[in-house]
Design brief:
The structure holds two protein chains of two kinds. Chain A is mainly β. Chain A is built from three helices and 13 strands; from the N terminus they run ββββββαααβββββββ. A seven-stranded antiparallel β-sheet of chain A has the order 3-4-5-6-7-10-11. Chain B is of the alpha+beta class. The N and C termini of chain B lie far apart (50 Å). Chain B is elongated, with a radius of gyration of 24 Å. Among the domains of chain B are: 30 residues, no CATH class; 38 residues. The chains are: A mainly beta, B alpha+beta.
């Protein structure tokens, strides 16, 4: 590591340079990737709002994500007490956990996975990032309505059971 | 299934190296603490299908390369009425393996938003 930050050579994105201030820290990693605790959010202007979540440790580990609200504009986050504690968020004013104030503090991303010729995502397990401290988790049943969405050929997201 | 009764502060040990302690008991929930070697993955049971989904998600780029991004963008922008429009036209990823493409990338300082 140098004063100017760290670098990693991604097979898909080329060389990525970043500083610790840009890094996201997932204390428990992600399910299936428990040791991937440092992820770098990478955005390519011409590809907005796609976000790459690149592992800071393993060049070949990279996720493609979209903000949850671009998939389902009615998406509402429902964080349990434990998840709020890990993220360093205050207690929800709404007992359901879907605090309006929470929306100002967190970014919710949905990981995209292949589904035949298209992609699918599970808004019931969003990546939730506290924008104030860069801490992240993958919330399980983190949506008020837990549903999967599949991208149709027309570009719309269709709910799947 | 082995069934054991435990009180707060009491624990059970699995395979001589995994300790599960009862931390707190409320009316509807039990808080457990788990001490285990780092090589042992500990997760909520409901995380297992998500782990499978995540492995698939990680394969999206690794299996298809950047072509999948190009195709994805074409479909996304086809239905872009409710989509956040970019300032520039979508384009496939320019960089190839081993090229220095850092000028194309922006790491996000999310905390500055």
């Amino acid at each position: 590591m140098t004063e100017s930050g760290e670098t990693i050579l991604s097979p898909w994105l080329g060389e990525i340079r970043w500083t610790r201030a840009c890094e996201l820290y997932f204390p428990a990693g992600l399910p299936g990737f428990e040791l991937e605790r440092r992820l770098i959010p990478v955005e390519i202007p011409s590809q907005r709002p796609l976000v790459y979540l690149q592992s800071a440790e393993h060049a070949k580990v990279c996720f493609l994500a979209l903000p949850a609200l671009t998939i389902d504009p009615t998406f509402a986050l429902d964080l349990c007490e434990d998840d709020r504690a890990v993220l360093g968020l205050g207690e929800a004013e709404d007992p359901s956990g879907a605090s309006p104030a929470c929306a100002l503090e967190v970014l919710c991303l949905a990981l995209l996975r292949p589904d035949g010729p298209t992609v699918q995502t599970n808004l019931g397990a969003p990546i939730v990032i506290n924008l104030r401290n860069g801490c992240g988790i993958q919330a399980l049943t983190g949506a008020v309505r837990s549903v999967g969405f599949r991208l149709s050929p027309s570009g719309d997201w269709e709910a799947v059971c | 299934m082995l069934i054991l009764r435990r009180r707060i502060g009491e624990a059970i040990v699995v395979a001589g190296e995994i300790e599960i302690e009862v931390i707190e008991i409320t009316r509807t929930r039990v808080k457990l603490g788990v001490r285990a070697p780092g090589r042992i993955s500990v997760a909520r049971k409901e995380a297992l299908p998500v782990a499978h989904e995540n492995r698939l998600a990680a394969s999206l780029i690794s299996a298809e390369g950047t072509d999948v991004v190009k195709e994805l963008l074409e479909v996304l922008y086809a239905g872009s009425e409710s989509f956040v429009s970019p300032n520039t036209a979508p384009s496939p990823l320019a960089p190839h393996r081993g090229e220095n493409s850092s000028h194309d990338l922006q790491t996000q300082d999310l905390r500055s938003r």
